[in-house]
Amino acid sequence: MKAPFLSFSAVLSALVWICLLSGPIPLKAAAGDKPNVIYIMADDLGYGDLGCYGQKIMKTPRIDEMAAEGMKFTQHYAGSALCAPTRSCLMTGTHTGHTRVRNNGGADGDLHPEDFTVGELLKQVGYATGAIGKWGVGEAGTTGIPTRQGFDFFFGYLNQSNAHHYYPPFLWRNEEKELYPDNPEKRTHYSHDLMTDEALGFIREHKDGPFFLYVPYTIPHVSLDVPEDSMAPYVGTIEETEPYGTPGGQHYRYEEKPHAAFAGMVSRLDRDVGRILDLVEELGIAENTLVIFTSDNGPTSAGGADPKFFDGNGPLRGIKFEFYEGGIREPMIAWWPGTVAPGTESDHVSAHWDLMPTLAELTGQPVPESTDGISFLPTLLGNSAEQKQHAFLYWEWPGGGGVQAVRQGDWKGIRHKLQKDADAPIELYNLANDLGEETDVAAQHPDVVAEIHRIMTEERIAPDPDPLFTPAKPKKAKKKKSAE
Q1: Which of 17, 91, 112, 254 is the most exposed place for a label (fewest CB within 10 A)?
Q2: Does the pTM of the predicted model rise above 0.90?
Q3: In angstroms, rounded to a whole number, what is the distance separating the alpha carbons of residues 426 and 87?
Q4: What top-level class would CATH report for the domain 32-386?
Protein backbone atom coordinates (compact mmCIF):
# COMPACT_ATOMS: atom_id res chain seq x y z
CA MET A 1 0.00 0.00 0.00
CA LYS A 2 2.95 2.33 0.54
CA ALA A 3 4.20 2.28 -3.04
CA PRO A 4 1.20 4.09 -4.56
CA PHE A 5 1.38 6.67 -1.74
CA LEU A 6 5.04 7.30 -2.38
CA SER A 7 4.37 7.55 -6.10
CA PHE A 8 1.66 10.13 -5.50
CA SER A 9 3.96 12.09 -3.18
CA ALA A 10 6.67 12.08 -5.77
CA VAL A 11 4.27 13.34 -8.42
CA LEU A 12 2.94 16.03 -6.08
CA SER A 13 6.47 17.13 -5.20
CA ALA A 14 7.36 17.32 -8.87
CA LEU A 15 4.30 19.42 -9.62
CA VAL A 16 5.19 21.85 -6.83
CA TRP A 17 8.72 22.26 -8.21
CA ILE A 18 7.35 22.78 -11.72
CA CYS A 19 5.06 25.54 -10.43
CA LEU A 20 7.90 27.20 -8.56
CA LEU A 21 10.19 27.11 -11.54
CA SER A 22 7.56 28.30 -14.00
CA GLY A 23 7.03 31.69 -12.38
CA PRO A 24 4.45 33.48 -10.22
CA ILE A 25 1.54 31.61 -8.67
CA PRO A 26 -1.64 31.95 -10.75
CA LEU A 27 -3.89 34.80 -9.64
CA LYS A 28 -6.81 32.68 -8.36
CA ALA A 29 -4.52 30.61 -6.16
CA ALA A 30 -2.64 33.66 -4.90
CA ALA A 31 -5.45 36.12 -4.32
CA GLY A 32 -8.46 33.98 -3.46
CA ASP A 33 -11.26 36.52 -3.39
CA LYS A 34 -11.95 38.78 -6.33
CA PRO A 35 -9.60 41.76 -5.93
CA ASN A 36 -10.78 45.33 -5.57
CA VAL A 37 -9.78 47.69 -8.38
CA ILE A 38 -9.14 51.43 -8.12
CA TYR A 39 -8.47 53.15 -11.44
CA ILE A 40 -7.25 56.76 -11.13
CA MET A 41 -6.98 58.89 -14.27
CA ALA A 42 -5.55 62.41 -14.28
CA ASP A 43 -6.66 64.98 -16.85
CA ASP A 44 -4.11 66.48 -19.28
CA LEU A 45 -1.14 65.13 -17.30
CA GLY A 46 1.75 64.61 -19.69
CA TYR A 47 4.19 61.72 -19.99
CA GLY A 48 6.93 63.86 -18.46
CA ASP A 49 4.92 65.50 -15.65
CA LEU A 50 5.87 62.95 -12.96
CA GLY A 51 9.19 62.57 -11.20
CA CYS A 52 9.34 58.86 -11.96
CA TYR A 53 9.03 59.72 -15.67
CA GLY A 54 11.73 62.41 -15.61
CA GLN A 55 10.05 65.55 -14.23
CA LYS A 56 12.60 67.92 -12.64
CA ILE A 57 10.55 70.90 -11.42
CA MET A 58 7.31 69.60 -9.93
CA LYS A 59 7.43 67.27 -6.95
CA THR A 60 5.39 64.04 -7.06
CA PRO A 61 6.78 61.96 -4.17
CA ARG A 62 3.70 59.81 -3.57
CA ILE A 63 3.23 58.75 -7.19
CA ASP A 64 6.98 58.19 -7.47
CA GLU A 65 6.73 55.97 -4.39
CA MET A 66 3.80 54.15 -5.99
CA ALA A 67 6.03 53.40 -8.99
CA ALA A 68 8.86 52.24 -6.71
CA GLU A 69 6.46 49.86 -4.98
CA GLY A 70 4.79 48.69 -8.20
CA MET A 71 5.19 48.53 -11.97
CA LYS A 72 5.83 51.46 -14.30
CA PHE A 73 4.73 51.14 -17.93
CA THR A 74 6.74 53.05 -20.54
CA GLN A 75 4.64 52.33 -23.66
CA HIS A 76 1.05 52.82 -22.53
CA TYR A 77 -1.33 54.78 -24.77
CA ALA A 78 -4.45 56.86 -24.32
CA GLY A 79 -7.63 56.11 -26.20
CA SER A 80 -7.31 59.46 -27.92
CA ALA A 81 -5.49 62.80 -27.71
CA LEU A 82 -8.51 64.47 -26.10
CA CYS A 83 -10.94 63.94 -23.27
CA ALA A 84 -14.27 62.44 -24.39
CA PRO A 85 -13.06 59.82 -26.88
CA THR A 86 -10.43 58.64 -24.43
CA ARG A 87 -13.15 58.04 -21.86
CA SER A 88 -15.28 56.24 -24.40
CA CYS A 89 -12.39 53.94 -25.34
CA LEU A 90 -11.60 53.26 -21.68
CA MET A 91 -15.17 52.49 -20.70
CA THR A 92 -16.08 50.34 -23.73
CA GLY A 93 -12.77 48.59 -24.43
CA THR A 94 -12.77 49.75 -28.06
CA HIS A 95 -10.48 52.03 -30.05
CA THR A 96 -11.66 55.19 -31.81
CA GLY A 97 -12.39 53.34 -35.03
CA HIS A 98 -15.12 51.43 -33.20
CA THR A 99 -16.06 53.37 -30.06
CA ARG A 100 -19.16 55.56 -30.11
CA VAL A 101 -17.74 58.87 -28.84
CA ARG A 102 -14.91 60.05 -31.12
CA ASN A 103 -14.87 63.77 -30.47
CA ASN A 104 -15.67 66.24 -27.71
CA GLY A 105 -19.37 67.15 -27.79
CA GLY A 106 -21.65 66.79 -30.80
CA ALA A 107 -24.56 64.49 -31.55
CA ASP A 108 -22.62 61.31 -30.70
CA GLY A 109 -21.33 62.53 -27.34
CA ASP A 110 -23.33 60.09 -25.19
CA LEU A 111 -22.99 56.34 -24.69
CA HIS A 112 -26.03 54.28 -25.69
CA PRO A 113 -27.73 51.37 -23.86
CA GLU A 114 -26.04 48.85 -26.13
CA ASP A 115 -22.57 50.12 -25.21
CA PHE A 116 -21.10 47.61 -22.75
CA THR A 117 -18.87 49.25 -20.14
CA VAL A 118 -16.29 48.10 -17.60
CA GLY A 119 -18.79 49.10 -14.92
CA GLU A 120 -21.30 46.63 -16.33
CA LEU A 121 -18.59 43.98 -16.70
CA LEU A 122 -17.73 44.08 -13.01
CA LYS A 123 -21.24 44.67 -11.75
CA GLN A 124 -22.37 41.38 -13.30
CA VAL A 125 -20.00 39.45 -11.02
CA GLY A 126 -21.00 41.20 -7.82
CA TYR A 127 -18.75 44.26 -7.65
CA ALA A 128 -19.92 47.50 -6.08
CA THR A 129 -19.11 50.12 -8.73
CA GLY A 130 -18.40 53.81 -8.32
CA ALA A 131 -17.30 56.64 -10.62
CA ILE A 132 -16.07 59.87 -9.06
CA GLY A 133 -14.72 62.73 -11.17
CA LYS A 134 -15.26 63.88 -14.76
CA TRP A 135 -17.47 61.53 -16.76
CA GLY A 136 -17.62 63.20 -20.19
CA VAL A 137 -19.53 60.54 -22.18
CA GLY A 138 -23.12 61.19 -21.14
CA GLU A 139 -25.01 64.40 -20.44
CA ALA A 140 -27.81 64.68 -17.89
CA GLY A 141 -31.00 62.95 -18.98
CA THR A 142 -29.31 60.72 -21.56
CA THR A 143 -28.58 57.00 -21.59
CA GLY A 144 -24.88 57.80 -21.24
CA ILE A 145 -24.80 58.84 -17.59
CA PRO A 146 -22.80 56.60 -15.21
CA THR A 147 -25.78 55.27 -13.26
CA ARG A 148 -27.19 53.94 -16.55
CA GLN A 149 -23.84 52.54 -17.66
CA GLY A 150 -23.07 50.09 -14.87
CA PHE A 151 -22.16 52.32 -11.94
CA ASP A 152 -23.98 52.14 -8.62
CA PHE A 153 -22.71 55.55 -7.57
CA PHE A 154 -21.52 58.70 -9.31
CA PHE A 155 -20.26 62.04 -8.01
CA GLY A 156 -18.72 64.78 -10.10
CA TYR A 157 -19.07 66.50 -13.46
CA LEU A 158 -21.06 65.13 -16.38
CA ASN A 159 -20.31 68.03 -18.74
CA GLN A 160 -16.68 68.58 -19.73
CA SER A 161 -16.94 72.34 -20.09
CA ASN A 162 -18.33 72.65 -16.56
CA ALA A 163 -15.30 70.68 -15.39
CA HIS A 164 -13.04 73.55 -16.45
CA HIS A 165 -14.09 75.38 -13.28
CA TYR A 166 -12.95 74.15 -9.86
CA TYR A 167 -15.43 76.12 -7.77
CA PRO A 168 -18.64 75.07 -9.55
CA PRO A 169 -22.21 76.04 -8.62
CA PHE A 170 -23.13 72.33 -8.58
CA LEU A 171 -21.89 68.79 -9.05
CA TRP A 172 -23.90 65.64 -9.76
CA ARG A 173 -24.60 63.05 -7.11
CA ASN A 174 -26.01 60.13 -9.06
CA GLU A 175 -28.82 61.77 -11.08
CA GLU A 176 -29.40 64.80 -8.87
CA LYS A 177 -27.60 68.13 -8.68
CA GLU A 178 -25.79 68.91 -5.44
CA LEU A 179 -25.83 72.69 -5.20
CA TYR A 180 -23.09 74.95 -3.86
CA PRO A 181 -24.69 78.42 -3.76
CA ASP A 182 -22.31 81.31 -4.44
CA ASN A 183 -19.38 78.89 -4.78
CA PRO A 184 -17.93 80.56 -7.91
CA GLU A 185 -17.76 83.86 -6.02
CA LYS A 186 -16.99 82.72 -2.46
CA ARG A 187 -14.75 79.79 -3.51
CA THR A 188 -15.66 77.56 -0.58
CA HIS A 189 -15.92 74.11 -2.25
CA TYR A 190 -12.93 73.02 -4.36
CA SER A 191 -14.26 70.25 -6.58
CA HIS A 192 -11.11 68.12 -6.53
CA ASP A 193 -11.17 68.00 -2.73
CA LEU A 194 -14.86 67.07 -2.74
CA MET A 195 -14.14 64.23 -5.17
CA THR A 196 -11.24 62.94 -3.07
CA ASP A 197 -13.41 62.91 0.04
CA GLU A 198 -16.09 60.97 -1.84
CA ALA A 199 -13.50 58.48 -3.15
CA LEU A 200 -12.16 57.86 0.35
CA GLY A 201 -15.70 57.44 1.62
CA PHE A 202 -16.54 54.93 -1.11
CA ILE A 203 -13.49 52.84 -0.23
CA ARG A 204 -14.39 52.83 3.45
CA GLU A 205 -17.99 51.88 2.72
CA HIS A 206 -17.03 48.98 0.46
CA LYS A 207 -13.83 47.83 2.16
CA ASP A 208 -15.20 44.29 2.51
CA GLY A 209 -15.31 44.20 -1.29
CA PRO A 210 -15.21 43.46 -4.01
CA PHE A 211 -15.43 47.00 -5.42
CA PHE A 212 -14.41 48.90 -8.54
CA LEU A 213 -13.73 52.60 -8.11
CA TYR A 214 -13.07 54.74 -11.20
CA VAL A 215 -11.58 58.13 -10.30
CA PRO A 216 -11.21 60.36 -13.40
CA TYR A 217 -9.80 63.42 -11.62
CA THR A 218 -10.01 66.82 -13.35
CA ILE A 219 -6.63 68.22 -12.36
CA PRO A 220 -4.31 69.42 -13.80
CA HIS A 221 -6.69 70.38 -16.65
CA VAL A 222 -7.11 74.15 -16.92
CA SER A 223 -8.44 76.49 -15.57
CA LEU A 224 -5.29 76.97 -13.51
CA ASP A 225 -6.79 77.02 -10.03
CA VAL A 226 -5.60 75.43 -6.79
CA PRO A 227 -5.80 76.28 -3.07
CA GLU A 228 -2.92 78.27 -1.66
CA ASP A 229 -1.43 75.45 0.41
CA SER A 230 -0.54 73.49 -2.74
CA MET A 231 0.60 76.52 -4.72
CA ALA A 232 2.71 78.18 -2.01
CA PRO A 233 5.78 75.88 -2.19
CA TYR A 234 6.35 76.93 -5.80
CA VAL A 235 5.77 80.68 -5.47
CA GLY A 236 9.12 82.39 -5.64
CA THR A 237 11.01 79.13 -6.03
CA ILE A 238 10.41 78.44 -9.72
CA GLU A 239 10.71 80.73 -12.71
CA GLU A 240 7.41 82.46 -13.40
CA THR A 241 5.82 83.69 -16.60
CA GLU A 242 3.41 86.51 -17.38
CA PRO A 243 -0.06 86.33 -15.81
CA TYR A 244 -2.60 84.47 -17.90
CA GLY A 245 -5.49 86.47 -19.34
CA THR A 246 -7.35 89.29 -17.67
CA PRO A 247 -9.71 89.11 -14.70
CA GLY A 248 -13.05 87.92 -16.07
CA GLY A 249 -11.87 88.35 -19.64
CA GLN A 250 -11.85 84.78 -21.02
CA HIS A 251 -13.25 81.29 -20.54
CA TYR A 252 -10.35 80.05 -18.42
CA ARG A 253 -9.79 82.05 -15.25
CA TYR A 254 -7.17 84.73 -14.83
CA GLU A 255 -4.09 83.48 -13.00
CA GLU A 256 -1.31 85.75 -11.83
CA LYS A 257 1.24 82.96 -11.31
CA PRO A 258 0.54 80.28 -13.96
CA HIS A 259 3.64 78.15 -13.34
CA ALA A 260 3.14 77.97 -9.58
CA ALA A 261 -0.56 77.24 -10.04
CA PHE A 262 0.00 74.36 -12.46
CA ALA A 263 2.75 72.85 -10.32
CA GLY A 264 0.50 73.17 -7.28
CA MET A 265 -2.28 71.30 -9.08
CA VAL A 266 0.07 68.42 -9.92
CA SER A 267 1.28 68.34 -6.32
CA ARG A 268 -2.30 68.23 -5.01
CA LEU A 269 -3.04 65.36 -7.37
CA ASP A 270 0.04 63.58 -6.06
CA ARG A 271 -0.95 64.19 -2.45
CA ASP A 272 -4.41 62.71 -2.94
CA VAL A 273 -3.23 59.65 -4.83
CA GLY A 274 -1.11 59.08 -1.74
CA ARG A 275 -4.14 59.51 0.53
CA ILE A 276 -5.98 56.82 -1.42
CA LEU A 277 -3.05 54.40 -1.14
CA ASP A 278 -2.67 55.18 2.56
CA LEU A 279 -6.34 54.40 3.23
CA VAL A 280 -6.13 51.11 1.34
CA GLU A 281 -3.21 50.09 3.56
CA GLU A 282 -4.88 51.43 6.72
CA LEU A 283 -7.97 49.31 6.05
CA GLY A 284 -5.82 46.21 5.57
CA ILE A 285 -6.99 45.58 1.99
CA ALA A 286 -3.81 46.49 0.08
CA GLU A 287 -2.95 42.89 -0.81
CA ASN A 288 -6.38 42.43 -2.36
CA THR A 289 -6.53 45.77 -4.18
CA LEU A 290 -5.09 46.63 -7.59
CA VAL A 291 -4.56 50.38 -8.02
CA ILE A 292 -3.78 51.79 -11.47
CA PHE A 293 -2.79 55.40 -12.15
CA THR A 294 -2.69 56.99 -15.62
CA SER A 295 -3.70 60.09 -17.63
CA ASP A 296 -6.26 60.71 -20.36
CA ASN A 297 -4.02 62.42 -22.95
CA GLY A 298 -0.96 64.61 -23.33
CA PRO A 299 -0.39 68.03 -21.71
CA THR A 300 -2.17 71.13 -22.93
CA SER A 301 -0.89 74.61 -23.77
CA ALA A 302 -4.31 76.22 -23.23
CA GLY A 303 -5.40 78.46 -20.40
CA GLY A 304 -1.91 79.48 -19.29
CA ALA A 305 -0.53 75.94 -19.00
CA ASP A 306 3.07 75.72 -20.20
CA PRO A 307 4.23 72.20 -21.16
CA LYS A 308 7.41 73.60 -22.72
CA PHE A 309 8.54 75.06 -19.40
CA PHE A 310 7.78 71.88 -17.45
CA ASP A 311 8.87 69.53 -20.26
CA GLY A 312 5.46 67.94 -19.88
CA ASN A 313 5.82 65.59 -22.84
CA GLY A 314 9.38 64.57 -21.94
CA PRO A 315 11.27 63.24 -24.98
CA LEU A 316 8.10 62.98 -27.06
CA ARG A 317 6.79 65.16 -29.87
CA GLY A 318 3.34 66.71 -29.59
CA ILE A 319 0.81 67.63 -26.93
CA LYS A 320 -2.95 67.35 -26.43
CA PHE A 321 -4.99 67.23 -29.69
CA GLU A 322 -1.95 65.85 -31.54
CA PHE A 323 -1.49 62.18 -32.37
CA TYR A 324 2.28 62.24 -32.19
CA GLU A 325 3.58 60.35 -29.15
CA GLY A 326 3.38 63.33 -26.79
CA GLY A 327 -0.37 63.57 -27.29
CA ILE A 328 -1.19 59.91 -26.67
CA ARG A 329 1.63 58.12 -24.81
CA GLU A 330 0.82 58.27 -21.10
CA PRO A 331 2.26 57.31 -17.75
CA MET A 332 0.73 54.20 -16.21
CA ILE A 333 1.61 52.71 -12.84
CA ALA A 334 0.16 49.54 -11.33
CA TRP A 335 0.35 48.97 -7.55
CA TRP A 336 -0.71 45.74 -5.90
CA PRO A 337 1.40 44.73 -2.88
CA GLY A 338 2.21 41.05 -2.83
CA THR A 339 1.17 40.51 -6.45
CA VAL A 340 2.78 43.17 -8.67
CA ALA A 341 6.54 43.02 -8.11
CA PRO A 342 7.92 46.27 -6.68
CA GLY A 343 10.34 48.42 -8.64
CA THR A 344 9.53 46.80 -11.97
CA GLU A 345 9.23 48.45 -15.37
CA SER A 346 7.46 47.18 -18.48
CA ASP A 347 7.79 48.24 -22.11
CA HIS A 348 4.71 46.18 -23.05
CA VAL A 349 2.70 48.16 -25.62
CA SER A 350 -0.78 48.69 -24.19
CA ALA A 351 -3.69 51.12 -24.44
CA HIS A 352 -6.73 52.30 -22.53
CA TRP A 353 -8.94 49.84 -24.36
CA ASP A 354 -6.96 47.03 -22.74
CA LEU A 355 -8.58 47.71 -19.37
CA MET A 356 -11.77 45.85 -20.34
CA PRO A 357 -10.10 42.48 -21.14
CA THR A 358 -7.68 42.88 -18.23
CA LEU A 359 -10.56 43.22 -15.76
CA ALA A 360 -12.39 40.35 -17.45
CA GLU A 361 -9.41 38.05 -16.95
CA LEU A 362 -8.86 39.38 -13.44
CA THR A 363 -12.40 38.42 -12.43
CA GLY A 364 -12.55 35.12 -14.32
CA GLN A 365 -14.92 36.28 -17.05
CA PRO A 366 -14.77 35.69 -20.80
CA VAL A 367 -13.32 38.63 -22.71
CA PRO A 368 -16.18 40.49 -24.44
CA GLU A 369 -16.12 39.92 -28.20
CA SER A 370 -16.61 43.63 -28.82
CA THR A 371 -13.29 44.67 -27.33
CA ASP A 372 -10.22 45.71 -29.31
CA GLY A 373 -8.10 45.21 -26.23
CA ILE A 374 -5.67 42.59 -24.95
CA SER A 375 -5.38 41.79 -21.26
CA PHE A 376 -2.14 43.00 -19.69
CA LEU A 377 -2.74 40.88 -16.57
CA PRO A 378 0.11 38.49 -17.45
CA THR A 379 2.48 41.46 -17.41
CA LEU A 380 1.18 42.58 -14.01
CA LEU A 381 1.75 39.07 -12.65
CA GLY A 382 5.26 38.82 -14.09
CA ASN A 383 4.28 36.23 -16.69
CA SER A 384 5.79 38.04 -19.66
CA ALA A 385 6.09 34.81 -21.63
CA GLU A 386 2.30 34.50 -21.58
CA GLN A 387 1.63 38.11 -22.54
CA LYS A 388 -0.11 38.50 -25.89
CA GLN A 389 0.88 41.44 -28.10
CA HIS A 390 -1.13 43.86 -30.19
CA ALA A 391 -0.85 43.47 -33.95
CA PHE A 392 -1.34 47.25 -34.07
CA LEU A 393 -2.90 50.20 -32.26
CA TYR A 394 -5.29 52.50 -34.12
CA TRP A 395 -6.55 56.05 -33.57
CA GLU A 396 -8.75 58.46 -35.49
CA TRP A 397 -10.18 61.91 -34.80
CA PRO A 398 -12.59 63.92 -36.95
CA GLY A 399 -11.31 67.15 -35.38
CA GLY A 400 -8.19 68.93 -36.56
CA GLY A 401 -9.28 68.44 -40.14
CA GLY A 402 -9.38 64.64 -39.80
CA VAL A 403 -6.49 62.59 -38.35
CA GLN A 404 -5.53 58.91 -38.35
CA ALA A 405 -2.62 57.20 -36.61
CA VAL A 406 -1.35 53.63 -36.34
CA ARG A 407 1.38 52.00 -34.32
CA GLN A 408 2.56 48.63 -35.63
CA GLY A 409 5.61 47.23 -33.92
CA ASP A 410 8.13 50.06 -33.82
CA TRP A 411 6.51 51.79 -36.79
CA LYS A 412 4.26 54.80 -36.30
CA GLY A 413 2.16 56.15 -39.15
CA ILE A 414 0.10 59.32 -39.04
CA ARG A 415 -1.79 61.41 -41.59
CA HIS A 416 -3.62 64.74 -41.33
CA LYS A 417 -6.20 66.96 -43.04
CA LEU A 418 -8.28 64.08 -44.38
CA GLN A 419 -11.27 66.36 -44.85
CA LYS A 420 -9.30 68.24 -47.48
CA ASP A 421 -7.62 65.20 -48.99
CA ALA A 422 -8.97 61.69 -48.40
CA ASP A 423 -5.66 60.34 -49.74
CA ALA A 424 -3.45 62.56 -47.59
CA PRO A 425 0.13 61.25 -47.39
CA ILE A 426 1.20 59.11 -44.45
CA GLU A 427 4.14 60.22 -42.34
CA LEU A 428 6.20 57.28 -41.06
CA TYR A 429 8.50 57.13 -38.04
CA ASN A 430 10.59 54.37 -36.50
CA LEU A 431 10.08 54.75 -32.75
CA ALA A 432 12.94 52.40 -31.96
CA ASN A 433 15.51 54.96 -33.07
CA ASP A 434 13.38 58.10 -33.42
CA LEU A 435 11.25 58.40 -30.31
CA GLY A 436 10.78 62.12 -30.93
CA GLU A 437 9.31 61.46 -34.41
CA GLU A 438 11.70 63.89 -36.06
CA THR A 439 12.48 62.06 -39.30
CA ASP A 440 9.75 61.00 -41.73
CA VAL A 441 11.01 57.84 -43.46
CA ALA A 442 7.90 57.07 -45.52
CA ALA A 443 9.77 57.39 -48.83
CA GLN A 444 12.27 54.71 -47.77
CA HIS A 445 9.64 52.15 -46.67
CA PRO A 446 6.73 52.06 -49.15
CA ASP A 447 5.79 48.52 -48.05
CA VAL A 448 5.31 49.63 -44.43
CA VAL A 449 3.32 52.68 -45.57
CA ALA A 450 1.07 50.42 -47.65
CA GLU A 451 0.38 48.15 -44.67
CA ILE A 452 -0.44 51.10 -42.42
CA HIS A 453 -2.71 52.51 -45.11
CA ARG A 454 -4.53 49.17 -45.19
CA ILE A 455 -5.09 49.33 -41.44
CA MET A 456 -6.30 52.91 -41.66
CA THR A 457 -8.76 51.90 -44.35
CA GLU A 458 -10.11 48.74 -42.77
CA GLU A 459 -9.90 49.23 -39.01
CA ARG A 460 -12.94 51.40 -38.47
CA ILE A 461 -16.71 51.44 -38.50
CA ALA A 462 -17.73 54.71 -40.10
CA PRO A 463 -20.64 56.55 -38.50
CA ASP A 464 -23.25 58.13 -40.76
CA PRO A 465 -22.36 60.75 -41.76
CA ASP A 466 -18.65 60.05 -41.51
CA PRO A 467 -17.02 63.19 -40.08
CA LEU A 468 -13.47 61.90 -40.48
CA PHE A 469 -13.51 62.61 -44.22
CA THR A 470 -16.40 65.10 -44.40
CA PRO A 471 -15.34 68.76 -44.49
CA ALA A 472 -16.81 70.67 -41.58
CA LYS A 473 -19.42 73.25 -42.46
CA PRO A 474 -18.13 76.81 -42.11
CA LYS A 475 -19.37 78.49 -39.00
CA LYS A 476 -21.76 81.36 -39.40
CA ALA A 477 -20.39 84.71 -38.39
CA LYS A 478 -21.85 85.93 -35.15
CA LYS A 479 -23.81 89.14 -35.29
CA LYS A 480 -22.35 91.93 -33.25
CA LYS A 481 -24.52 93.01 -30.38
CA SER A 482 -25.73 96.59 -30.45
CA ALA A 483 -24.34 99.07 -27.97
CA GLU A 484 -27.71 99.07 -26.30
Answers
A1: 17
A2: yes
A3: 27
A4: alpha beta
